[in-house]
Amino acid sequence: MIIGVIADSIPGANEAASALEQEGLATIEIFGLTKDHEQALKGEKYEALVIALKSGLESKDKAVTESVEALRFLVTCGAKHIFFKFTSSLNQNQVINTGDVITALQKELNSDFTAISPALPDIGYTVYQGFAFGREHLLQGDPIYRLFPESIKCGLLPHQSLQGDHTALHIWEHINNLKKHGYNSVLFDAVNDHDLIVQAQAVYTLPLLCGDTAFARAVGRAQVANALATGVQFQPHVLQSFPQGRMVMMASSSMPQTLAQVQRYRKVASTHTVDIARCVGASSEMLAYISEVAKWYEAHKDEKLPPLIYVNMDPVEMKAINDKYGSVAVDIAIERFFYGLCGKLKSAGVTKFVAAGNEIGMQVAKALDVVGFYVGPCVINGVPWLKVLHEDLYMVFKPSFSGDENFFFRTLQE
Q1: Predicted model pTM
Q2: DSSP states of 43-93 as a string?
Q3: Whole-angstrom Cα distance, residue 372 to residue 102?
Q4: Nearest to 336 by CA among 263, 285, 379
Q5: What is each CA distance from 26 to 30, 148, 156, 234, in whole angstroms?
Q6: pLDDT tens digits, residue range 29-83?
Q7: Do 83 and 48 touch, CB atoms closer than 8 A?
Q8: CA-to-CA distance for 114 and 54, rounded, in angstroms?
Q9: Residue 118, class by beta-carbon neighbours within 10 Å (0-12 exposed, 13-18 middle, 19+ buried)?
């Protein structure tokens, strides 16, 4: 294995895994860590392994513990380089959390220096003179490196240092100068993808690199170029063609992107709106309701377009439901419903599961007892087809905020 990735969110892990796959690395993604993962990966051939955590939303101590455990697992699996993929659009508390994780990973690797590049130029998130900008608007008053905890003594490599000839040499001169003055990390400016590529070509040999998807992609490209130059033979990609089989669409999100996708698809396909009231009560009632919905799916399974089962997340209606049952109870009920439904649908022969919404994907994976995925081609940017290890099951997990109104239709395109 060439590179191991620790991601602080499931959507972020999907993005990073997809980026590495597109750069030519056969990639496996796993959700969290269990005792089953080591056995499940034995005999599998891959060059990149991505571990999806939820550490971006966890307490500092839990985030650090889970990240260090993930690092140890990646090293055990043979990772030569580690990439910590964090979400760039962080508030100050999350930046501190991220800094503590970076410190812990450095300590575990016995590494005295790391490079950090959080820019995402393709969506307009750039870093200039250490400041974060969103579509050229300043996002915060302090430079990013000043928001890190004291354990991260971070210097800046400004944008002008990335210009001109012999850039890698200039970058390392700057890094060595920072090291002499007691710094243990460098924050890179980046305003376009070229900046990230230049950075990655210079520092890809460091034991630990940190940033968002754009930097992960650039690092993957640099690793592939180096491996090819040294005669490495790459593994064939497992999921190279459009998966076949019965399919179900699912959605649960209040984000406008997913709401628009549901409204567009339901105009031409059979849809079922989840009755949350029947999910909140006794377990027996929910189980009976899940069986009813599974039968509804059976009645529509042979139609031209796969059926859609969704939660109506209209803000007005959801407020009334949350006021009646409590938001926590409603969230748990929705997760339990999709967990139970996916198990039923798998038994009925469904092999392709498309889930729109941040939490549905996790419930699908749990219901199908998934330990890992091979990463395949993208439906939309950062949202790949995933093939379950050891089974002919395929999934697409779309974050709530991504995609245009035609997302569900795009999953049908070969």
Answers
A1: 0.88
A2: T---SEEEEE--GGGS-HHHHHHHHHHHHHHHHHTT-SEEEEE--SS--HH
A3: 25
A4: 285
A5: 14, 34, 33, 8
A6: 998 887 778 888 888 889 999 999 988 878 889 999 999 999 999 999 999 999 9
A7: no
A8: 22
A9: buried
Using DSSP, state whether 230 is helix, strand or coil: coil
Q: Which DSSP string do the residues of 194-229 spell out, in sequence order?
A: HHHHHHHHHHTTSSEEEE-HHHHHHHHHHHHHHHHH
Do 25 and 234 meet the contact criterion of CB atoms below 8 Å apart? yes
Beta strands in 294-372 (DSSP E): 308-310, 350-356
Rounded to whole angstroms, the Cα distance separating 287 from 27 reads 37
How far CA 347 is from CA of 113, 309, 310, 311, in Å, comes to 50, 17, 20, 22
Angstrom CA distances, 322 to 176, 279, 313, 326, stand at 56, 13, 11, 5
How many Å apart are CA 96 and CA 149, to the nearest integer?
6
Task: Name the residue with tokens 């920072």.
Answer: 178
Which residues have a Cβ under 8 Å from the Cβ of 180 and sit 6 or more positions away? none
Integer Cα distance of 16 and 28 in angstroms? 11
User: How far is Cα 392 from Cα 270, in angstroms, rounded to an integer?
Assistant: 25
Handedness of CA 339, 342, 346, 352 (dihedral sign): negative
Mean pLDDT of 236-241: 65
| Cβ proximity of 399 and 383 under 8 Å | yes
